[in-house]
């Protein structure tokens, strides 16, 4: 086998080895227990090879779309539309509001700066 064929075969296998094998399974329902009796939930599903999300306020869907994933230095970042978060062992932590230079609020009913959504079993 020539060197170029070997490199070509390795390159074809590389993306699946790097992208899929170390990715945690993120599907499930994540509940924000610290705000108004678990009022908010994030549901992540995998359909046709991509991750989709639904954000619930009680039983009403308030946002939905594709989950964008990015891994940086062993930290998995997830984006749910305009809401970004960090994934760590069955938890998603998001920054709920910004500061004077970067003003935003995602969940106005919750006073905490950082919200932790925990995967329900």
Structure description:
This protein has 1 helix and 8 strands; from the N terminus they run αββββββββ. The chain is globular and about 35 Å long. The longest helix has 17 residues, at 3-19. It has 121 residues and is mainly β. The protein has one helix spanning 3-19, and strands spanning 28-32, 40-47, 50-57, 60-72, 75-80, 83-87, 91-95, 114-119. The chain has one domain. An 8-stranded antiparallel barrel has the order 1-2-3-4-5-6-7-8. Mean pLDDT is 84; it is low at 1-21.
Q: What is the succession of H and E elements?
A: HEEEEEEEE
Tell me the strand order in the biggest sheet: 1-2-3-4-5-6-7-8
Tally of DSSP β-strands: 8
Bulk shape? globular
Q: Could you say which structural class the secondary elements and strand pairing correspond to?
A: mainly beta
Distance between the termini: 50 Å
Report the total helices: 1
Question: What keyword list fits this structure?
Answer:
121 residues; mainly beta; eight-stranded antiparallel beta barrel; 1 helix; globular; disordered N terminus
Summarize the structure.
With 121 residues, the protein is mostly beta strands.
């Amino acid at each position: 086998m020539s060197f170029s064929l070997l490199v070509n075969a390795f390159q074809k296998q590389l993306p699946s080895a790097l992208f899929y094998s170390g990715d945690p399974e993120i599907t499930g329902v994540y509940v924000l227990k610290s705000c108004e009796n678990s009022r908010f939930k994030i549901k992540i599903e995998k359909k046709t090879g991509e991750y989709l999300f639904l954000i619930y306020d009680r039983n009403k869907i308030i946002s939905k779309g594709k989950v964008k994933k990015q891994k940086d230095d062993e930290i998995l970042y997830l984006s749910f539309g305009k809401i970004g978060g960090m994934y760590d062992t069955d938890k998603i932590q998001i920054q709920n509001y910004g500061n004077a230079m970067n003003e935003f609020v995602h969940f106005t009913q919750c006073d905490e700066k950082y919200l932790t959504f925990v995967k329900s079993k």
